[in-house]
Specification:
Helices cover 54% and strands 15% of the residues.
Amino acid sequence: MSDADTNRPIEDVALGERIKRLIGLRLLIAFLFLGGASILASRESPPFALTPLFVLVACTCLLSILYLLLLRGIRQIRALCGLQLWIDSLLVTALVHYTGGIDSLFAFVYIFPILAAVILLSRRSSLLLAAGSSILYGALINIQLHGLMQRAQFLSAAGITHDPWYAIFQTFVNSVAFFLEAILGSNLAERLKEAGRELEQQRADLRNLRTLHQDIVANIPSGIVTLDLKGRIVSVNLSAEKIIGLTADEMRDTSWRDTPFREIKPLGALFSTSTPHFSGLSQEFQIRRPDGRTSLIGINFTPLKTSDGLTLGLVGIFQDLTERRQIEARLRQADRLAAVGQLAAGLAHEVRNPLATISGAIQLVKEEGAARPQLLDIVLRETDRLKLVTGRFLDFARPRQAPEKQCDLVSLLREMVSLLEKSCDGTSTVTFSFQCEAEPIMVAADPDQMKQVLWNLGLNAIQAMPGGGRLTFAIRRRVSDNGAGWAAVELTDTGPGIPPGEVDRIFDPFYTTKSGGTGLGLAIAQKIIDNLGGRIEVVSREGDGATFTVYLKQAPGEARSG
């Protein structure tokens, strides 16, 4: 590209290149005519005078050289192109004249300048050139018919005169051909240009999409690896190189067995057949990196398919889970230490108060020199309180593993309701109700442990209604999605409910809002139910009571019989 081309618009530079090809095509046609004329010159009597034809070929060559020189420095590229095509029409007119006029075989050569205008310029330029060519051809035929210019004749057509209507018809046919070529050619050229623009836009979009895809794949924090149907690694991204510790060149076109992915044993079964059937695969495995470090990798393989559903291989997305597992282990350790600290602080608080009371009573006995019955009662009471706290703490810390037993939940709950009614003093206005769908309902649980759970939950509900209320017990059967049978025990009170901020803490050890409470009753109940494979759910309606639901597995055969 010359210096002049660098200062031109892109469209003019492209047009200049097409003009150079036009000049080359014009010279080729000129040399073909020159060759044909040379063959005719070898005959004794050529059909028309050949000297003008040689002159026209020479003029075409000289003009082509001039066009090339002008193309180097001129800035009006489109004007130069139009000038060439109009001059070409004049040269074609001269060619038609010197080869017989109305009898000339070369009237079709007008098509070439018109076609060039269609391709290089615009529809308007091609129509103007078609009109100009029709005028030149018609004027030439008209002048020759009226004898204003002597026309060259074919030897075989010597002395033949043509009817003026034939000349008009000849002119009309050629003019229609010129205009049809301009119209149809321009339509086709517009469609080709539009298709070219759309294709270029699609190429640009494809380049942008490819660049975006490469950037996403290259910079995504997860490793990506693709394998073909034979288990060879096709591609890996930058994150995969960092996680595995090998470069893409070291892994590409290598069997998965020769890479750290050999630790994924299920891949061997996938690629063991000649026509592998791929499905999803998730696995965690350890690799030893080239630097000696061991990493835990979590990978998920999915089939790589075309839009037609044809399987091309596998694509695996994986991450280094080593640091995450270490953080999770540290968090679990921190949670355990926090729980131990919370338990220790609660236990110290619960033990310190009785010990302080016992210490004060003993100090008074020492000072007075004699033991009073009231002081001894205090010591015994606080000693019993210490036994209660430490005993409940042991129940929570090391709940005994109950043997495999069954109990009738209906009769057990009736007994607990009776005991709770008797535990209320005469001033209590709590009323009790009991609902049951059927009886008996056998559950896989130890009766003594279930009494402890129901007693703690019932006593907690009674204490939540100091001004009185209603406590409702209900037993219902439940069937899970997998067909397992469950029994649900619901305890619903009409107290003030549990504040939203305390619902998640009521099962924490030593957490209590009642004076004199240990905060271990609900914690022990949840521990027992967890060991039985059940669960406790709480629904609180602030200002309108709360419902505790205990889910227990029904005894074997009970679910089917129910």
